[in-house]
Amino acid sequence: MLVDQPWQPDINWETPAGRALRDLARALPRDQPIHITVFGSAPLQLGIDAGFLSADVDVFSQHDLRPAIERAGLGKGQREIYIDQTSEFIFSAGASWRERAFSVTQDTVTFVFPHPIDILVSKIKRLDAKDLNAFRLVHERTGHPTPDELKYALQRHVDLFRPNFDEENSGDPIANTQTVWREIYQQTIDVRGEIIAPALRERCHAYGVNLPALKDELPD
Question: How many of the other CB atoms lie within 10 Å of CB of 218?
Fold first, then answer.
């Protein structure tokens, strides 16, 4: 599993999440193409370990799937493994995550599965016990991400480490990153020195922030 290349999993549709998604596809209208992105823990169950269970299958789409979800009995309280449609911004991954995602089409429905590295990065801000187990699962089963790979992935999404809005009640991504390094790699990490500062230097270089002003380069 190369973390900088598109994901190419063998999707196991016989998992609980797989069966729920197939039932959803059958319940959707066939008169137009529909794209559904599956995020959270479900792609790890579908593509890495069928035993990695979660009660809900998180999805987002430009279409309102809720009527079909209810009609197929796939909503919360209707089924043990239920489908939860949320807004796209809930998936807190780097802007380039679509470049690495895997897509598969069934009839008129295209399912998009983000790369595990982007799923893991999206879990850093909250990092509850289930999220940390996701890191363990991916690392134990694939050997990835290595510390350097995860550093690079977090540098791609360095804005994750910006202070929260006053209205937010979320976790501490710096402390959570340190927890991942301690629990997964048995190492320590200087998040500001090894992730944030290099990413910001690269950004400044790309924007030309530290370069001489153009007017200073021109003759009088």
Answer: 7
Give the N- to C-terminal CA distance of the chain in Å, as an integer. 55
Whether the CB-CB separation of 100 and 5 falls below 8 Å is answered with yes
134's tokens:
């996701």
Global confidence as pTM:
0.88
Rounded average pLDDT per 10-residue block, the chain, 220 residues: 84 96 94 96 96 92 96 95 94 92 94 97 94 96 96 94 70 95 98 94 73 48
With b meaning 16 or more CB within 10 Å and e meaning fewer, what string describes 88-109? eeebbbbeebeebbbeeeeeeb
77's torsion region: left (phi>0), alpha (psi -120 to 50) or beta? left
Residue 4 near residue 86 (C-beta atoms within 8 A): no
> What's the CA gap between 18 and 49, in Å, rounded?
12
